[in-house]
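How a chain folds remains the central question behind the approach discussed here. This step matters because it turns folding into a mapping between discrete strings. The sequence in question and its structure tokens are set out directly beneath this paragraph.
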Amino acid sequence: MSAAEWIGRDLGTRTVSWTDRDAILYALAVGAPADRLDLVFEERMRVLPTFALTLAQWAPDVLAEAGAWDVATALHGSQRLTVLGEMPIQGEMEMSARVGAVWDKGGAAVFEVEVTSPYVVATWSIFAPGSGGFGGERGPSRPAGPEGEATGAGVLTVAENSAALYRLTGDRHHIHIDPEAAKASGQPRPFLQGLATVASATLVLADLAGVHPADLTSLEARFSSVVFPGEQLSVSTWDDGGFVVTTERGVAIDGGRAAFAH
């Protein structure tokens, strides 16, 4: 089946629900410390907008299970998130998903999975080697890097148990917990989920901007390389909202851009 045949495919609608326990576990998994009562205590907390991505994970999974790409080689290339409203600490909402586009990169295809809901609009870009060459449009180019010197910098320490904790929020792929699975994927040991890395970075970005992380209004990021639990990351920011996350091995997230309500 040609990748082009997936364009516009309806992936269904689901009603998802969550409790304060789910939102607290998520906050802890992405690095919120126990003394951040505004993130981890049900009497005072505000829900992190990126938590909605865990509730929408079913959408790209549905497409993968349908055989749109080879799950052994496909990569989560980038993520976009637009926040429409603040989520309550518990509740339910309806999420609808579709394949918004499939771009032809020649040797690969990029599938864009769009999820809409009352609180967020989220788009996964999945890079699928071997699925290109179907004569479609190439799509947008890789975003340009930020210009000039960074205007802010922060440090992000990834906890040793971060990938194991984040698995409990929905992404239970074996490469994030099983050393053998990680080695089979080409990595020396289990590594952190990309969405966990970018969510953790938003906590640092909010601190640098002097705002609450739940004030996030939009986010986009491109995943360039893996992050391992226990690593210390550098987060560099620019006045236009651009950001880059680096490890001692190189860039982990580029093409980053975040905006917060002030």
